[in-house]
């Protein structure tokens, strides 16, 4: 087994997903098959191969520090599930 | 011939000489939508009123003697993964069911500036994760060639809309084959440009180092026309490349004399349906007759492409989709007990199974203890695959393969087996890992279903890609169309 039910529960918690017992069962089976296939890359010796994190070389993109056009507070809040004044409202944290 | 059946270049010529109006074209396309959409189900949102206003604006311009470009007045469908100001944009997910963007994606805006008429937003696999459009949070789109089969994915709605003549062209996005594969399964042209060539600003991200926007069209000429207006540097996308933009229509040359075409043997063997293979071999003969030099080549690390992709793409997705937490936009569970309860239940109720599966895969691959074995190694495999392509392109101008290993499969056939579903993109995925351009053009019919020919180019080699695709299209008899009218 590449992945256990306990690991699936832990990964789901890290990803902030609440799974039912039957979902844990199903996803463990499916992730196990997929990870076994993905594990095929362990056949390769890549010790001296550099990583490619992007298809094109990335560089820092800088621009002048000038005030530009941006969203208004009303626009930024227009899709908020809950808002008050110019703020997003979330459940109490403390 | 009805207006909705025509290509961009045919309609554009008729508009220029005032033989038809943009309004008449839009009316023809919406009449077609009214007649077949309940069978095909390409669209999540129709924007009829906006479209008619846009068409009227184009007609006014033409009446005033103003010059308009070839895309003016052309009914266009947009995959629902691209933000459109004031128009609901769901990314195929319940979590964004009520999301109304406050800005428009650059790629869409570039086309709107040219006067396109937006017919609506098309169905897709949730967050572009899938190969069949069965993972949509709303409904499954049907393949216009056989309504019991999938249109491919994840841009299945955009592909089906063009194949069913419910739009003259459409936009899709391609992370592992999501333009080319549905184009192949629906018998139309679909292109994934070089990574960075088309701005991703306003594209709801799936895997940022792989995603690319591109067109679905009825022929290669239309593809070149759309590309002319899609491509361009955008300061809002830090990965946008700066090039002297060519006129891609100048690449439409029906002559392949001296063009070297490589056929990767790894994409013509295991897992490729024998009839699909035959159709591609027939296409290679046509390309040879047109002057191309065709030879077999090998990309030895291609067999590791799928494994690397299904580590890298979910890893990026798990990070990108962390933003869906019920705070700033989208669905929020009613009456959460506390913040953690809100996050957990919002995401669990809002996301579908495939999205959850990939988020967990990505979280696992990035977690302590597994990072090096999975993600770190996959990024190195990506280098090996890129090197394979670079070596092949020292010898060849383009590479050719089937786009999809099979024709369109039945709805439900692969749903319970994610790995089997992932294999649908085995021919297209390596191209995304290397950031290269690829195009799919129809190359045959097997049991009444279309087969796609994939042509892969060097980075920024879109001109050669279009030349080869155009030459093939000119020599290949392709008059087949889905016959929706004769079906229930």
Mean pLDDT of chain B: 97
Uncertain runs of chain A with pLDDT below 50, 5 residues or more? none
Total strand segments of chain B: 11
Calculate Rg of chain A over CA atoms: 22 Å
Order of helices and strands of chain B, N to C?
HHEHEHEHEHEEHEHEHHHHEHHEEH
- Largest beta-sheet characterization of chain A: 2 strands, antiparallel
Describe this structure in words.
- The complex is a heterodimer of chains A (94) and B (488).
- The two termini of chain A are 41 Å apart.
- The radius of gyration of chain A is 22 Å and the shape is flat.
- Chain A is built from 3 helices and 2 strands.
- In chain A, 35% of the residues lie in helices and 4% in strands.
- Chain A has 94 residues and is mainly α.
- Chain A has a two-stranded antiparallel ribbon.
- Chain B is of the alpha/beta class and 488 residues long.
- Chain B has helices at residues 8-16, 22-40, 48-63, 106-113, 156-163, 180-186, 220-230, 274-289, 305-320, 339-350, 353-366, 372-395, 418-422, 429-434, 462-475, and strands spanning 43-46, 75-79, 117-122, 169-174, 189-192, 212-217, 260-264, 293-297, 398-402, 438-446, 449-457.
- In chain B, strand 10 (438-446) and strand 11 form a beta hairpin.
- Helix content of chain B is 38%, strand content 13%.
- At the A-B interface, helix 1 and helix 2 of A face helix 9, helix 10, helix 11, helix 12 and helix 13 of B.
């Amino acid at each position: 087994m590449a992945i256990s039910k306990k690991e699936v529960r832990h990964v789901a918690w890290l990803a902030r997903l609440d799974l039912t017992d039957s979902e844990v069962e199903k996803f463990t089976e499916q992730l196990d098959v997929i990870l076994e296939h993905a594990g095929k890359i362990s056949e390769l010796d890549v010790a001296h191969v550099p990583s490619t994190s992007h298809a094109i070389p990335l560089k820092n993109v800088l621009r002048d520090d000038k005030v530009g056009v941006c969203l208004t507070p009303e626009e930024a809040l227009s899709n908020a599930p809950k808002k008050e004044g110019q703020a997003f409202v979330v459940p109490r944290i403390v | 011939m009805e207006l909705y059946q025509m290509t961009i270049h045919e309609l554009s010529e008729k508009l220029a000489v005032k033989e038809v109006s943009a309004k008449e074209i839009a009316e023809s396309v919406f009449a077609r939508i009214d007649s077949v959409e309940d069978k095909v189900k390409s669209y999540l949102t129709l924007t009829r009123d906006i479209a008619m206003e846009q068409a009227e604006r184009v007609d006014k311009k033409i009446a005033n003697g103003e010059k308009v470009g070839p895309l003016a007045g052309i009914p266009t469908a947009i995959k629902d993964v691209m933000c459109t100001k004031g128009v609901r944009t769901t990314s195929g997910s319940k979590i964004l069911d009520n999301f109304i963007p406050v800005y428009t994606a650059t790629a869409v805006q570039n086309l709107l500036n040219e006067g396109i008429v937006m017919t609506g937003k098309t169905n897709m696999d949730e967050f572009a994760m899938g190969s069949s459009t069965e993972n949509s949070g709303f409904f499954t789109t049907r393949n216009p060639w056989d309504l019991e089969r999938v249109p491919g994915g994840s841009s299945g709605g955009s592909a089906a809309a063009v194949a069913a003549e419910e739009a003259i062209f459409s936009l899709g996005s391609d992370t592992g084959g999501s333009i080319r594969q549905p184009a192949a399964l629906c018998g139309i042209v679909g292109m994934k440009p070089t990574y960075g060539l088309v701005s991703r600003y306003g594209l709801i991200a799936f895997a940022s180092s792989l995603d690319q926007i591109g067109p679905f069209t009825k022929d290669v000429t239309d593809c070149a026309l759309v590309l002319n207006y899609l491509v361009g540097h955008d300061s809002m996308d830090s990965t946008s490349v700066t090039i002297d933009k060519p006129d891609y229509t100048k690449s439409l040359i029906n002559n392949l004399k001296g063009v070297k075409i490589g056929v990767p043997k790894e994409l013509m063997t295991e897992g490729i349906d024998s009839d699909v293979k035959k159709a591609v071999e027939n296409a290679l003969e046509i390309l040879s007759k047109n002057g191309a030099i065709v030879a077999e080549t090998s990309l030895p690390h291609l067999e590791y492409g799928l494994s690397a992709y299904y580590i890298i793409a979910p890893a990026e997705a798990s990070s990108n989709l962390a933003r869906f937490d019920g705070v700033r936009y989208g669905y929020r569970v009613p009456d959460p007990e506390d913040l953690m309860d809100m996050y957990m239940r919002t995401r669990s109720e809002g996301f579908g199974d495939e999205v959850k599966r990939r988020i967990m895969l990505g979280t696992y691959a990035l977690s302590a203890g597994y990072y090096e074995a999975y993600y770190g190694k996959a990024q190195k495999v990506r280098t090996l695959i890129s090197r394979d392509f670079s070596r092949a392109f020292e010898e060849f101008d383009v590479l050719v393969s089937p786009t999809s290993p099979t024709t369109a499969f039945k709805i439900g056939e692969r749903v319970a087996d994610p790995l089997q579903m992932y294999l649908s993109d085995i021919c297209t995925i390596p191209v995304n890992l290397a950031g290269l351009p690829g195009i799919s053009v129809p190359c045959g019919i097997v049991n009444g279903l279309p087969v796609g020919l994939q042509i892969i180019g060097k980075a920024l080699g879109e001109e050669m890609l279009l030349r080869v695709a155009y030459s093939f299209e000119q020599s290949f008899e392709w008059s087949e169309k889905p016959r929706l009218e004769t079906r229930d």
